[in-house]
Amino acid sequence: MPELPEVQTLCTGLRSAIAGKRVERVLLFRENLRYPFPEHLAASLEGKIIEDVQRRAKYILMPCGSHQIIAHLGMSGSFTIRHDALANRHKHDHMIWQMEDGIDVVYHDPRRFGFVLLTHRDQWHTHPMITSLGVEPLEDECSIVYMQQHMRNVTRPIKTWLMDAHIIVGIGNIYASETLFRARIHPNTPTYACINHAEMLRTCFRSVLNDALASGGSTLRNYKNALGTTGYFQHKFQVYGREGQACFTCNDTIQNITHAGRSTFFCPSCQAEPSS
């Protein structure tokens, strides 16, 4: 699933391509993705200008006329810029926006877990999907004090805490594993036991996310940026997806355990399990 670096990279590319441009025509090729397309989506967007492309957590936000578009990529979604997309429509292209300058914005989603919603542009921040979100990990609001307040007395593993979007958004499974390796913290460590390491954890997840942003995100299966090219941070993974391979630091064997149904990769030597 695309996380913060992938969604931010996509937003940056879309903003460069379509911000300030008018939507001439909206074409839908099915009635729904994860949720039904808004009933009046075409009427709400056609003739209106996409004023900006922003990100909140993993949501893509586009103010357009009196509306705010809220989009999510799900597991396999992508927005890409193409030419003549209708004449050369691909399988799983579910929506095309034809823009005033002749380019097309195509939403492509093989698994259809993504969605596109509409809300009033002045009320998007009160949408139920937005109000429950935690702080942005790269912003000042993600302070050491904030982190420690949410770590105190929490017994669940630090790996699942890092992935909790109600506390901090956008870290996700890949970047949580990579963060804990950089911090030399075992993923099973109780969250409360890491409270004195909050500053180090923040430093590590920020460095991981910034490195991933600089690499255009990670492409494991479907992710592509707005120009249809893949990210390459996956070539820099230290632990994620490397079960059974040698640790680049100590040569021990990378292991894989499960947290909340998600694979967690770590080095048992560099990330020693805490004594009980």
Description:
- By secondary structure, this protein is α+β, with helices and mostly antiparallel strands.
- It folds into two domains: 4-131, MutM-like, N-terminal (N-terminal domain of MutM-like DNA repair proteins, Alpha-Beta Barrel); 144-266, Helicase, Ruva Protein, domain 3 (Orthogonal Bundle).
- Helices cover 24% and strands 21% of the residues.
- The chain has helices at residues 4-18, 41-45, 128-131, 144-151, 158-162, 172-183, 198-214; strands at residues 21-28, 49-50, 54-56, 59-64, 67-72, 78-82, 93-99, 104-108, 115-120, 255-259, 262-266.
- The strands form three sheets. It has a five-stranded antiparallel beta sheet with strand order 2-1-7-8-6.
- Strand 10 and strand 11 form a beta hairpin.
- Helix 1 (4-18) packs across helix 7 and helix 6 (172-183) crosses helix 7 (198-214).
- The protein is elongated, with a radius of gyration of 20 Å.
- The protein starts with a helix and ends in a 10-residue tail after the last strand.
